[in-house]
């Protein structure tokens, strides 16, 4: 659907081996980890160097063709959803670990390197890369930067933005620039991380490496219900303990994980809590005793402690597999990603349960309890007419519920295409317009991943907030106003 | 291609890092998730294009994606049915058809393999002089010639071997095709180890090919024919447990009931017969024979059809590690296929070569004297890649290492030279 001239120029940049135009092959790129939204890209390019990425972007810019960046295609908000009229720039072949510098506690990697591969490269030096999305063995660092990904251990260690020291990126006009935490002036690196591919494409990332803690202990606590588990979480945080992670799974999520990886969680649990403590050995021992006591006070009926890596991996196996494991108990599902204040957890969970009952839609709950980041999994049968729409409705109401409790529509999966329409519920028109000004500073032509984050496409140069005539895209029928 | 099995995939991508072709090319359509997407397109009405067939052909069938999948997608069944669909609906170029006919008309037939011994022996002996000619062969035929191992003398196994000491079990042994003709010492070692561990061993004549090659190649009807003959042979022998020492054969034999599902009588007969890998069976049986010291450093290679398809990873390592004096080394990136994958190195020589080179580098980095694996294809492939890199490594089957320990042999007795070694032996 793009001009043949552009395809030829792209082939000249990446070589025929790096360009996909066959319609059957193109369709395999029609969605990322969120299968609910699909669009077959006009072409796919697989560049192997930053210079090739820059040349591809320049070619798009010259031709006025939109482009979307994609890593491993595991995103859960449709951030890498292609454009039917655009180029999909896949960074999967940019996968070299360029250097590991233990003395500087940093590594320089290309965007297609997986999150786990960074930790593996750093492991010989007693270092690791802290943010750990559950998909860490497959998701790429480029995608992590784009979505400012989190993970179970973000409670103590922070998100991607806290672990990226510098990024080399290709601007939407095809220029290669570096953004660095050390840059004086505005924090452009901070703006770029989490920009979901709308401000450019990262081509090199310098990440911070963290020393492995002296001691780690992982506790699995089984509770009769989600409420008592929630009480334990609040008690732990109130006691001044900052665990490396506190994760909760409800009965339905446990059932799925059990079916998938036979994680062997205690039978009959209405909720399990995974509490991981790390740090100096003496501190871990003291905190561990305190956490065990607090769990018991909150009616935990079984406690298991893993002190060695194999047992720890066994406990985490169920949690990490939880999303995809839901495929075992349901033909299809939507993963939601809302945030609420920790104190509102019990109320919000009760609200989700009520929604589930009202719509007759099952909802499994997996969440980073420590920072109030919920991942409700809304189950449905995609073969049943109307079921998808019903699940979507439940999913949307869950976000409303989070917002009503002073929360957010996303904790770590990004806004993407999935939640763009919820942005106006969180931000006023003036806020959204201000964000557009930032976007326009990077991408005046509006070609970098258009249609993501913001509900209404807008051209730069338009006066924010004052629309005298219909938007050009609306007038041409390419977009509609909500 | 069963749409229900396709729908089990939730598109999470956890299979990507496990997939050897994704590791090579980093393209969606050469990943398990992408291939399942292609299958979905096909069942939804897209015709089977040559491009689509090419991506199914490029899959090694190593099944590393199966244990990696949290949703329990049966990729093994999906890819076999996709291959069957390719055989049915896709017309390959003439040269490719001829080569496939040659391979599938040769390997599953021990008698035909045997008939090839003399010309192969001559060709092996002449290899140094034939080298320029080999280099000019089409890559696929070149791969075939390069992989051929030096031919050992045939070993005739007795039809029944009594248990040493108290009889603890009666088991059959599947002798295979390539294993039987090219590695008869492995079968002999398997029978001896079982007997020394107290098994009465039955080696029925007329068992032939188990059908693995055909099943993995999408030739389902042919595979079912081989399966029925194998089942009948072991029923006649009066055993209910059959020990298998080749990973690919064991994986297929364990799924006979699924392969024969269309025929209730035969699938019931398949379910009555239990197939077990040698290491798996010995671990269940528990050791009784004395292990003599075997001072040697061993790198254990996971054959895909043992580790991924059968889930047998711990048992061979434990039985090797239990040998006094034996030092066991792990191969980095152990779960990644070596590129042999049944007939893959014949049909897709370039990709197989690249994977072979990667595996060879990893095996050499383990710094072992001996490479041990439970699949003849893997050891041929890795040894040939090691030699291509100008190095050498001796290879043995798990059964041979155990046999050497049980019989108190010296480590020097262990380890066949790899393919291409015959010419050097002649020179020395």
Give an overview of the whole structure.
The complex is a heterodimer of chains A (482) and B (428). Chain A is of the alpha+beta class and 482 residues long. Helices cover 34% and strands 20% of the residues of chain A. Chain A has 5 domains: 87 residues, Uridine Diphospho-n-acetylenolpyruvylglucosamine Reductase, domain 2 (2-Layer Sandwich), CATH 3.30.43; 115 residues, Uridine Diphospho-n-acetylenolpyruvylglucosamine Reductase, domain 3; 109 residues, Alpha-Beta Plaits; 75 residues, Alpha-Beta Plaits; 45 residues, no CATH class. In chain A, helix 1 runs antiparallel to helix 3, helix 8 packs across helix 10 and helix 13 packs antiparallel against helix 14. About 1% of the residues of chain A have low confidence. Chain B is an alpha/beta fold and 428 residues long. Chain B contains 26 helices and 9 strands. In chain B, the strands form 2 sheets. Chain B has a 5-stranded mixed beta sheet. Classes of the chains: A alpha+beta (482), B alpha/beta (428). The interface between A and B is medium-sized, with 42 and 28 residues. Chain B: It catalyses: (R)-lactate + A = pyruvate + AH2; glycolate + A = glyoxylate + AH2. Chain B: It holds the Pfam family Fer4_8.
């Amino acid at each position: 659907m793009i001009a043949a001239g552009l395809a030829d120029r792209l082939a000249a940049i990446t070589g025929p081996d790096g360009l996909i135009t066959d319609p059957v092959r193109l369709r395999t790129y029609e969605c990322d980890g969120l299968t609910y939204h699909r669009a077959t890209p006009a072409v796919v390019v697989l560049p192997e160097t930053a210079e090739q990425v820059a040349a591809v972007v320049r070619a798009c810019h010259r031709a006025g063709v939109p482009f979307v960046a994609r890593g491993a295609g595991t995103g859960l908000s449709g951030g890498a959803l292609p454009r039917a009229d655009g180029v999909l720039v896949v960074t999967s072949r940019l996968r070299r670990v360029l250097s590991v510098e233990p003395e500087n506690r940093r590594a320089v990697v290309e965007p297609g390197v997986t999150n786990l591969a960074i930790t593996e490269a750093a492991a010989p030096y007693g270092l690791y890369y802290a943010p750990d999305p559950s998909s860490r063995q497959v998701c790429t660092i480029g995608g992590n930067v784009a979505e400012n990904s989190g993970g179970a251990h973000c409670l103590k260690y922070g998100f991607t933005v806290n672990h990226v020291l510098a990024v080399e990126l290709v601007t939407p006009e095809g220029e290669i620039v570096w953004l660095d935490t050390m840059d004086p002036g505005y924090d452009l690196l901070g703006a770029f991380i989490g920009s979901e591919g709308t401000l450019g494409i990262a081509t090199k990332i310098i990440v911070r490496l963290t020393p492995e803690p002296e001691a780690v202990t992982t506790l699995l606590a089984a509770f009769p219900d989600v409420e008592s588990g929630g009480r334990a979480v609040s008690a732990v945080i109130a006691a001044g303990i900052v665990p490396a992670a506190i994760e909760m799974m409800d009965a339905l999520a446990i059932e799925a994980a059990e079916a998938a990886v036979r994680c062997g969680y205690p039978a009959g649990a209405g909720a399990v809590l995974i509490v991981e403590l790390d740090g100096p050995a003496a501190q871990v021992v003291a905190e561990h005793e305190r956490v065990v006591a607090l769990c018991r006070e909150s009616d935990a009926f079984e406690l298991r402690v893993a002190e060695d890596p194999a047992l720890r991996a066994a406990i985490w196996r169920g949690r990490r597999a939880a999303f995809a494991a839901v495929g075992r108990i349901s033909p299809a599902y939507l993963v939601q990603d809302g945030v609420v204040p920790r104190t509102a957890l019990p109320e919000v969970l009760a609200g989700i349960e009520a929604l589930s009952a009202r719509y007759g839609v099952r909802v499994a709950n997996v969440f980073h309890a420590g920072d109030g980041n919920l991942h409700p999994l809304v189950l449905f049968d995609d073969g049943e007419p109307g079921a998808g729409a019903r699940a979507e409705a439940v999913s949307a109401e869950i976000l409303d519920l989070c917002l009503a409790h002073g929360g957010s529509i996303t904790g770590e999966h990004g806004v993407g295409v999935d939640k763009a329409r919820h942005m106006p519920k969180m931000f006023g028109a003036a806020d959204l317009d201000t964000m557009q000004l930032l976007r326009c500073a990077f991408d005046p032509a509006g070609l970098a991943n258009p249609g993501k984050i913001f509900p209404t496409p807008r051209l730069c140069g338009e006066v924010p907030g004052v629309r005298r005539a219909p938007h050009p895209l609306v007038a041409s029928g390419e977009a509609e106003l909500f | 291609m069963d749409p229900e099995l396709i729908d089990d995939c939730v598109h999470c991508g956890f299979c990507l890092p496990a997939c050897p072709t994704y590791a090579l090319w980093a393209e969606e359509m050469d990943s398990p998730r992408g291939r399942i997407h292609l299958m979905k397109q096909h069942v939804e009405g897209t015709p089977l294009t040559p491009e689509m067939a090419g991506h199914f052909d490029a899959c090694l069938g190593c099944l590393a994606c199966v244990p990696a999948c949290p949703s329990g997608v049966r990729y093994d069944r999906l890819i076999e049915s996709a291959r069957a669909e390719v055989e049915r609906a896709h017309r390959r170029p003439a040269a490719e058809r001829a080569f496939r006919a040659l391979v599938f008309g040769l390997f599953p037939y021990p008698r035909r393999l045997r008939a090839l011994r003399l010309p192969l022996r001559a060709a092996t002996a002449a290899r140094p002089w034939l080298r320029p000619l080999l280099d000019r062969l089409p890559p696929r035929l070149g791969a075939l010639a390069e992989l051929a191992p030096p031919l050992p003398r045939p070993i005739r196994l007795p039809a029944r071997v009594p248990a040493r000491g108290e009889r603890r079990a009666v088991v059959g042994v599947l002798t295979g095709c390539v294993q039987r003709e090219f590695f008869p010492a492995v079968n002999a070692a398997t029978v001896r180890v079982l007997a020394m561990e107290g098994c009465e061993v039955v080696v029925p004549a007329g068992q032939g090919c188990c059908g693995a090659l055909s099943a993995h190649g999408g030739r389902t009807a042919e595979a079912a024919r081989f399966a029925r003959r194998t089942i009948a042979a072991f029923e006649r022998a009066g055993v209910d447990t059959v020990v298998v020492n080749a990973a690919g054969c064991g994986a297929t034999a364990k799924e006979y009931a699924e392969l024969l599902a269309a025929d209730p009588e035969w699938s019931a007969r398949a379910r009555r017969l239990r197939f077990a890998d040698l290491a798996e069976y010995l671990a269940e049986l528990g050791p009784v024979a004395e292990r003599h010291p075997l001072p040697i450093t061993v790198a254990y290679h996971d054959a895909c059809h043992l580790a991924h398809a059968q889930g047998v990873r711990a048992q061979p390592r434990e039985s090797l590690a239990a040998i006094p004096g034996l030092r066991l080394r792990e191969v980095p990136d152990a779960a990644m296929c070596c590129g042999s994958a049944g007939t893959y190195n014949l049909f897709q020589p370039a990709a197989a070569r690249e994977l072979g080179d990667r595996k060879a580098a990893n095996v050499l980095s383990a710094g072992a004297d001996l490479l041990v694996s439970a699949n003849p294809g893997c050891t041929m492939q890795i040894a040939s890649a090691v030699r291509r890199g100008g190095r050498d490594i001796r290879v043995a089957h798990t059964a041979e290492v155990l046999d050497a320990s049980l019989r108190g042999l010296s480590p020097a007795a262990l380890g066949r030279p790899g393919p291409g070694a015959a010419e050097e032996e002649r020179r020395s």
